[in-house]
Design goal:
about 400 residues; single chain; alpha+beta; 10 helices; two-stranded antiparallel ribbon; eight-stranded mixed β-sheet
Length: about 400
């Protein structure tokens, strides 16, 4: 048997079992060792085994991470054996599973060699350099899978974009702004035509109220001091009625008609001016009193105060009818808990195999161990009785 010539010896070699590890395998182990820390990382090793002159020679040409292998053990569990065999058939079908190593961030000084389902630790190995296309292809494939961007289904992207556009259109339709009538709809003539902005409308109403108040006070002063109090009271009620009226915040569109709140202040002002025109002129009475100052008393006309418009009565709300409460459902009795079943361990049984046979999977191995106070799942004896939940 011809041994590799270009080698680098790490530690002292074992005289009964000599281990040779290819350079790409060492590089892969070093990459995984950098990410290992508190949680150990298991690596399955594949290669070729030879025996000559009573010495065993192990050549590792492939390596792959084993997720279920996280601690050193003398006998591998059935789940670990199935995992390493599945990865061997996928990536290294021409090689055999020969051992493993556990990485914890420290330098690797030896490997666990598995022979006849028994694993033993061999300290010291030789790193050799040889063409290894299989391990190189595996490392490149694994690196591409790590950096491969996440693929997004175009149909899902289009669906999300469509929902966003619908929400945006709905938000623009009810975004809290005033709803404007369409151009092709006819508008009502009169007060809705040429309505200024709300701020200008408030200013005009306030100015009209002030001018009305001053005009009424002036007429009352010209008419004499006897009717001044009544005129002042009427003017106060008029201004108070103007200020209490609320303007509409926005026009409401219903069908093809546009409804806008009526400005009551303008109608109130018009009625007050019309009443003033129907009353006798106070200036004429004042002039007449000046001509008849030699014994004739001046005729003073006392205007009638403006009659306030009565406010509509607020309807009294009717009491709400109480809603009967639904009957309380009767709780169902809890289902009885199944009792554990006794099982006698047969030759060749494992806890994983027993769980797969009874439950269809190995997810309840930990529950079986906790029920039977078993610390090591692989340490079970033939003829021993255990309880199965």
């Amino acid at each position: 048997m011809e041994l590799p010539k270009n080698i680098t010896q790490i530690g002292e070699s074992n005289p009964h079992c000599k281990v040779y590890v290819e350079d790409y395998v060492i590089s892969y182990i070093k990459q995984l060792n950098q990410s290992a820390g508190d949680r150990a990382v298991g690596v399955a090793l594949y290669g070729i085994g030879r025996e000559e002159a009573g010495v065993t020679y192990i050549f590792f040409y492939g390596a792959c991470r084993a997720e279920l292998l996280q601690k050193e053990c003398r006998h591998l569990s059935q789940a670990v054996q199935q995992e390493v065999e599945k990865k061997r058939r996928k990536h290294f079908p021409e090689y055999t599973f020969l051992g493993y190593c556990i990485l914890n961030g420290e330098m690797v000084e030896g490997f666990h060699v598995c022979e006849q389902n028994v694993c033993r630790y061999i300290e010291g190995y030789a790193q050799f350099y040889e063409k290894n296309d299989k391990m190189l292809a595996f490392m490149l494939e694994e690196r591409q899978e790590e950096v491969k961007p996440e693929a997004v289904d175009q149909s899902k992207y289009d669906e999300v974009k469509k929902r966003q556009e619908e929400r945006r259109a709905a938000a623009e339709g009810r975004g809290g702004h005033a709803v404007r009538p369409q151009r092709d709809q006819p508008e009502k003539p009169g007060k809705t035509e040429g309505v200024p902005p709300m701020s200008m409308r408030n200013m005009k109403i306030a100015a009209a109220g002030v001018f009305t108040f001053l005009g009424v006070v002036g007429l009352a002063a010209m008419g004499g001091s006897e009717g001044f109090g009544e005129w002042r009271a009427a003017a106060g009620r008029l201004v108070e009625g103007i200020t209490e009226k609320q303007l509409p915040d926005a026009a409401e569109v219903g069908g093809t008609n546009v409804q806008v709140g009526t400005i009551v202040a303008e109608d109130k002002l018009t009625d007050a001016i019309r009443k003033e025109n129907t009353q006798p002129d106070a200036s004429q009475s004042f002039e007449q009193g000046a001509i008849e100052e030699e014994g004739t008393q001046s005729a003073v006309v006392t205007p009638e105060p403006a009659t306030p418009t009565p406010e509509p009565a607020t309807p009294t709300p009717e009491p709400a009818t109480p809603t009967p409460e639904p009957p309380t459902p009767t709780p169902e009795p809890p289902a009885p808990t199944p009792e554990p079943v006794s099982y006698t361990i047969q030759r060749g049984d494992t806890l994983i195999g027993i769980c797969i046979k009874k439950y269809g999977s190995d997810k309840r191995v930990a529950e079986v161990c906790a029920l039977n106070h078993i610390n090591n799942p692989d340490d079970i004896k033939e003829g021993e009785k255990i309880l199965l939940p």
